[in-house]
Amino acid sequence: MSDRSPRNRAPQLKADPVRRVAYKVIRQVTAEGGYANLVLNKALRDARLSGRDAAFCTELVHGTLRWQGTYDAFLARSVSRPLADLDPELLDLLRLGAHQLLNMRVDSYAAVNEMVTLTRSELGQKRTGLVNAVLRKISQRTLDQWISTVAPTPEEDLLGFLAVADAHPRWVIDAFDRALTDGPGAAPPGEAVRELERLLAADNDPPRVTLAARPGLADLDELVAAGATPARWSPYGAVLEGGGDPGRIEAVATGRAGVQDEGSQLVAIALASAKVDGDDTQWLDLCAGPGGKSALLAALVQQRDGQLTAVEPLKHRAELVRSNLRAIPGDHKVLVGDGTKPTWPAGSFDRVLADVPCSGLGALRRRPEARWRRTPEDVVELRPLQEALLDSAITSVRPGGVVAYVTCSPHPDETRAVVDAVLSRRDDASLEDARPLFPDVPDLGEGPDVQLWPHVHGTDAMYLALVRRS
Ligand SMILES: C[S@@+](CC[C@H](N)C(=O)[O-])C[C@H]1O[C@@H](n2cnc3c(N)ncnc32)[C@H](O)[C@@H]1O
């Protein structure tokens, strides 16, 4: 963020409206479990912030949330009582101040004064002394100096150092390290640490907005004419380099194109392009909400005169699937139901997507708060459902048909471990090499499953295993 003189001005009596909006958004995320992107977009609209003010507010919110755990480690050294004893609203103000002092080019004097003024207006005069004192302490060191103060040295504990320096919970770093060491597309021996560092850095960069032209309804030229650049591998993908509101593009507004990460497009295309002999008209999306992949699959099966059935247990998410399918011709069905309890006969489908609920650790770039909200227990708790859904997907596909097991997480306990466990109990299904279904995509390793990475492919960390029913 560049130095913005209006933000570096002398102390104000009234709180800066942009910082106030940022603070309110952060409160809704940390106290009420809101999703930063949704809450922020609404708050920017309600406060009519645009241009530089909107960009400043976005950086305040995203940066503060992304770096939360690291700032807490610094704050714990700067406050005389345990952080857990601080009022949560005060802690959020301190985190917001720390972000401006350590990661944005805001003048320290201005940052502290603005936060004191904001404290006075939001929490009353009594709290201003503590905020002033703590933020002055924070301002006495640079980010690197703070990291050396609180983190283990890289020689002592490299992953512990990276957890602080790159703002990821330690358990997440351990999982990424495992995936990069022995998962599909593992880094060459000795390279895993460098890869891990690149991955963590990529997670701290906001992703570019990628669009998918729905086959038969829009083509890439139309998106390019609207200012997008063709994506690297998806024949339907285009990137809005400068960001901006995708809804202004007519094809997106009318549902002929959608916003979809290139990795999500690639896994759906991979399922659609696996070789299947015989009938190929009945496709199932077993975990469909909100329906990004359903839309791409429905458009593709429509070109084969076929039909997509999409299943989603949550009514409001099933509505989102319907809305995503609204522009796609054909007799596609959206069922509100539990994918582990099929209401259709076994072997009804030629292709099945099981894009199972997961920790989402592959999409940390787009969800700034997610890394601190998820816990290792989430991964453990999701496991039985993931296994049951893959099992049900295999039962739902006919002999000779294929299942794509997909997660937007590279955590080994959600990817290979699930596939191995399910296949070890079934003698009617086996794993196939999925790499040829990703033509031209580099660095897919030894297979047979595929792991995409933000730092290698610029996509979310999508995982795909291709299972064929015998
Ligand atoms: C990773 S998301 C799917 C994303 C979707 N394929 C897309 O591209 O938009 C997983 C979905 O599975 C749904 N889900 C949860 N439990 C389920 C179950 N028992 N059966 C089917 N779907 C389930 C969740 O509600 C969520 O919408």
TrEMBL record:
The UniProt record lists the keyword Transferase: yes
One Pfam family, short name: Methyltr_RsmB-F
Alphabetical GO biological process terms: regulation of DNA-templated transcription; RNA methylation
Top-level taxon in the UniProt lineage: Bacteria
Molecular function terms, GO-annotated: RNA binding; RNA methyltransferase activity
Catalytic residues as annotated in Swiss-Prot or TrEMBL: 408
Keywords: Methyltransferase, RNA-binding, S-adenosyl-L-methionine, Transferase
Domain SAM-dependent MTase RsmB/NOP-type, first and last residues per copy: 185-470
Residues the record lists as binding S-adenosyl-L-methionine: 287-293, 312, 338, 355
Alphabetical list of CDD domains matching this protein: AdoMet_MTases
The keyword Iron is annotated on this UniProt entry: no
Family from the record: Belongs to the class I-like SAM-binding methyltransferase superfamily. RsmB/NOP family.
The protein, known as: 16S rRNA (Cytosine967-C5)-methyltransferase
